[in-house]
């Protein structure tokens, strides 16, 4: 098996691939031969990722701009993918938002925003992708949950709920789509060095590291390697699972 071409000829959509974990997943998928479709709220956000991928593959990837909290924009994104490629092999539901609020301070707007991106956006993309995956030979869907969706965290009740729901979506979809050959798995990262965690206080990060046997934050490329496993034939008999990429936090 050629371990640098694990995704040869696969058409892959990585949502939220303008930066952070999504950007690294898009890179690694492209390095492994996938034809990656980049996605962000606006096209300009993905230009840097697109240029980096062009350096690796010689091909400028398609960028689709869509607000994942808006169903009509998601629907249009999948229509565009169908028009250009006629099928989809891989979907990484990575776009996500985090807003910390203590109980009593969580507004209806906070809940709407967090759930519409992290949970409803994931579910809408999964449904629309499943239709385009009928013509795929080894389709795989990877949903980004979080260790917070399993363990919970102070100040992150709404986020935790939105990410716990992603695990429920993953298990149900794995059961329902398995007979069609579509595998559905989730990743639950611990703290990963991206923009998303920049607002966390030193004390909060230090407390997290104390409970992390590997004693450091994770890197976006370390989550990408787990996504590559779930996207490729290396995990051909794995579905409905949530893999923690957290340095041993829950051990
Ligand atoms: N970092 C961590 O410690 C950590 C831990 C566990 C789980 N996760 C999960 O991993 C995923 C990636 O996180 P990250 O740390 O890489 O985050 P990030 O650096 O903040 O990047 C978030 C990505 O999501 C996109 N996005 C956000 N809202 C969107 C919307 N309404 N419509 C379309 N795209 C939207 C952003 O696009 P724009 O650039 O266009 O804004 C960006 O590409 C998220 O689902 C997150 O919850 C992260």
Automatic annotation (TrEMBL):
Family per record: Belongs to the short-chain dehydrogenases/reductases (SDR) family.
Protein name: SDR family NAD(P)-dependent oxidoreductase
Superkingdom assignment: Bacteria
EC number: 1.1.1.-
Pfam families: adh_short_C2
Enzyme type, top EC level: oxidoreductase
Signal peptide: none
Domain Ketoreductase residue range list: 10-190
MF-aspect GO terms: oxidoreductase activity
InterPro entries, sorted: KR_dom, NAD(P)-bd_dom_sf, Sc_DH/Rdtase_CS, SDR_fam
Keyword annotations: Oxidoreductase
Gene source species: Kiloniella antarctica
């Amino acid at each position: 098996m050629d371990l640098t071409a694990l995704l040869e000829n696969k058409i892959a959509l990585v949502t939220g691939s303008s930066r952070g974990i999504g950007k690294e997943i898009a890179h690694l998928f492209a390095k492994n031969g996938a034809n990656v479709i980049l996605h962000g709220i606006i096209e300009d956000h993905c230009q840097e990722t697109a240029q980096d991928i062009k350096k690796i593959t010689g091909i400028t990837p398609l960028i689709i701009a869509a607000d994942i909290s808006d169903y009509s924009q998601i629907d249009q994104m999948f229509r565009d993918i169908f028009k250009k490629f006629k099928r989809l092999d891989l979907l990484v539901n990575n776009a996500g938002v985090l807003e910390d609020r203590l109980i009593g301070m969580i507004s209806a707007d906070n809940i709407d925003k967090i759930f519409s991106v992290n949970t409803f956006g994931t579910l809408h993309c999964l449904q629309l992708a499943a239709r385009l995956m009928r013509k795929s030979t080894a389709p795989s869907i990877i949903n980004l949950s979080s260790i917070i969706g399993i363990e919970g965290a102070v100040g992150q009740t709404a986020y935790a709920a939105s990410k716990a729901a992603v695990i429920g979506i993953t298990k149900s979809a794995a059961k329902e789509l398995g007979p069609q050959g579509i595998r559905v798995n989730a990743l639950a990262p611990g703290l990963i060095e991206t923009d998303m965690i920049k607002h966390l206080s030193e004390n909060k990060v230090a407390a997290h590291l104390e409970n992390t046997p590997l004693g450091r934050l994770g890197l976006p490329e370390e989550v990408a390697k787990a996504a590559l496993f779930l996207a490729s034939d290396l995990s051909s008999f794995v579905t409905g699972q949530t893999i923690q990429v957290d340095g041993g936090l829950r051990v």
